[in-house]
Design goal:
The protein has 9 helices and no strands. It is mainly α.
């Protein structure tokens, strides 16, 4: 009997001694698991930091690219504005017109000629407009039609489109039926067109066509009506006007330009 009790006590003591060891092993496993989790978290955090750094580098690179594109775009706008008049003048020379037709020679002793009829004199394609110096306001009141016209045209050539618009308006008030009136109407429209004032540009080109339908600049004027309409967002009207240019002036540079723009518009409609 006593031997049995002793055995029971020994077993109980062994169980009591074994319990802390098991608990100790369980605690160690928890600690190892915790360390592994921390290592995983640290690795994930490092990957996240690396990704953030990469994104920052990409943003910096994109900002630099945007600034360069903005700079390039500004330069392109300036270059386009500088070349605009030259390109348009070439087109008009190819159409057979000139920026400033020559006035007939008038002897110094001859009296001042009356206002010319609505139909202008023939253009002199080989003439170079003379240089004019002085204050535009003073020159405009001298009564010299050619001088007043050249002041406005020089402002246009210099890219001073707001000034040229005002000067051409003043010229048309002084010489509404002058020899240079159709040219002034055309270049007034160009002054508005260059500054993207498309409604005003269309109005001036339409007036040119209404008053001088057979003038050398009529084809270019009708073309610019269509381009102005396109600039205003009147795509359907622009297409109709450009088709009229092609039909009314076949073989001309205006017709070829209108055909090119029509193809561009149609391609744009297909892409949408």
């Amino acid at each position: 009997m006593r031997l049995g009790i002793k055995l029971m006590l020994v077993v109980a003591a062994a169980l009591v001694a074994a319990a802390p060891a098991h608990a100790q092993r369980q605690s160690l496993a928890d600690r190892v698991g915790s360390l592994e989790q921390q290592m995983y978290n640290n690795s994930a955090n490092q990957d996240l930091l690396n990704q953030i750094n990469q994104l920052r580098q990409q943003v910096t690179s994109l900002q630099a690219s945007i600034e360069q594109l903005q700079h390039d775009n500004a330069q392109l706008k300036q270059t386009a504005q500088d070349q605009y008049l030259d390109l348009d003048s070439r087109l008009n020379r190819l159409e057979g017109g000139s920026a400033a037709p020559a006035l007939p020679a008038i002897p110094a002793s001859a009296p001042k000629a009356p206002a010319a009829p609505a139909k202008p004199a023939a253009a002199a394609t080989s003439e170079r407009p003379p240089s004019v110096h002085g204050d535009p306001g003073s020159l405009a009141v001298t009564g010299d039609e050619r001088t007043s016209y050249n002041v406005a045209f020089d402002a246009l050539k210099a890219g001073k489109y707001d000034d040229s618009a005002q000067l051409f308006l003043s010229f048309l008030e002084l010489y509404p039926n002058g020899v240079y009136a159709p040219n002034a109407l055309y270049w007034l429209g160009e002054s508005y067109y260059a500054t993207r004032n498309f409604p005003m540009a269309e109005s001036q080109f339409r007036e040119l066509l209404s008053r001088y339908p057979t003038h050398d600049k009529a084809a270019g004027g009708l073309l610019k009506v269509g381009l102005s309409q396109y600039g205003e967002g009147k795509v359907d009207q622009a297409q109709q006007t450009l088709e009229t240019v092609v039909a009314q002036y076949p073989g001309s540079d205006a017709a070829r330009t209108a055909q090119d723009r029509l193809q561009s518009i149609r391609l744009g409609n297909q892409i949408r």
